Amino acid sequence: ILEEVDLESAGFTGNKILQRTYNLIGKLLTRLILKTDLLAVTMHKYVRVLKENYGASNIKMIPHGTFELSGKPDYSLPEGPKKIMTFGKFGTYKKVEAMIEAVELVRSRTGIDLEIEIAGTDNPNVPGYLDSVKAKYAHVPNLNFTGYVEEEDVPELFSSSAVVVFPYTSTTGSSGVLHQAGSYGKAVVMPDLGDLSLLVKDEGYIGEFFDPKSVDSMSEAIQRIVQDDAYRIEMGKANYKAAMAYPMELVTDMYLEAFKALKIKNKIHSIELRPTD
Predict the structure, then answer these.
(1) Both ends of the chain: CA-CA distance in Å?
(2) CA angle at residue 239 from 155 to 243, to 5 degrees?
(3) Are 105 and 219 in contact (CB under 8 A)?
(4) pLDDT averaged over consecutive 10-residue blocks of the chain (277 residues)?
(5) Position 89 in a domain
(6) Which stretches of the chain are DSSP H helices?
(7) 144, 168, 175, 258: least surrounded by Cβ within 10 Å?
(8) Are residues 257 and 171 in the same domain?
């Protein structure tokens, strides 16, 4: 729902005229989508917004869901430095400079051996972003950029990480990466803003929150996890439980039930409209 997104902090535009134009287009498209028989959304917030702002009644909340993995997570970590990982497409509302600087602060304060892993690519709207970050932070030890991560490499990426960080300046909806992190039993560090905060409350995830405008705040959130393995494991178990509450099989059943209800409703409606002799 475009009017719920901070277009400037999300990296779309800071131009006020363009923002109004985008929001107008977004509202028109939302009204068009609401012409459907039933609109499924992934968060309770969207149900409320569509009811209050558009007078919609054909809304159903169906969670994002999580793909089930074979076996439960292993909460132990491989030998060597603890990996602080972020995953996504970077350069708009996902920026990694603060995360790199935050980990450097944790290193200086604690002496803990930490590795920074930036997993993913540039956002298509910001080509060259990660190359510029590599150049700026070339002096930082144990800083790795994986580039595009193949699907078969995703399990190892998450399993070997101690913490998954969400270095976001804005949010644009439910987070697929949070659900992935939960399915691998990972501790997470995230900004206390927007849809991420609501998602945690709605679905039972646990995270260390930070002020998105403060590197110090992010560093303290990371430090609280990396210096306490018992806490890291406890958080990982809670997030795994939250992720498994809505496995994709259950989410699929919810969609099928919605389709069945629509089919029955439309059949009754067609009978009511049938002309009588």
Answers:
(1) 47
(2) 70
(3) yes
(4) 66 75 87 92 86 92 79 91 97 94 98 98 94 98 97 94 93 77 95 78 88 96 98 96 88 92 77 59
(5) yes
(6) 16-33, 44-54, 97-110, 129-136, 154-159, 176-183, 194-203, 215-226, 229-244, 248-273
(7) 144
(8) no
User: By residue range, what is the domain housing residue 199?
Assistant: 82-244
Tokens of 109: 């304060």
- Cα(164)–Cα(110) distance, rounded to whole angstroms? 19
Burial of 253 (0-12, 13-18, 19+ CB in 10 A): exposed
Q: What is the pTM for the complete model shown?
A: 0.81
Helix H or strand E segment including 187: strand 187-191
Between helix 129-136 and helix 97-110 the angle, nearest 10°, is 30
**Rounded to an integer, what distance in angstroms lies between the CA atom of residue 111 and that of residue 109?**
6
Helix, strand, or coil (residue 56): coil
User: For residue 27, is it within any domain?
Assistant: yes
Residue whose token pair is 């009811």:
51
Q: Is residue 74 part of a domain?
A: no
Q: Is there a single domain that holds both residue 181 and residue 143?
A: yes
Write out pLDDT tens, residues 153-188. 999 999 999 999 999 887 766 677 888 999 999 999
Is residue 114 helix, strand or coil? strand
User: Are 240 and 263 members of one domain?
Assistant: no
Same domain, 122 and 46: no
pLDDT tens digits along 185-225: 999 999 988 777 777 777 889 999 999 999 999 999 999 99
Residue type, 193: L
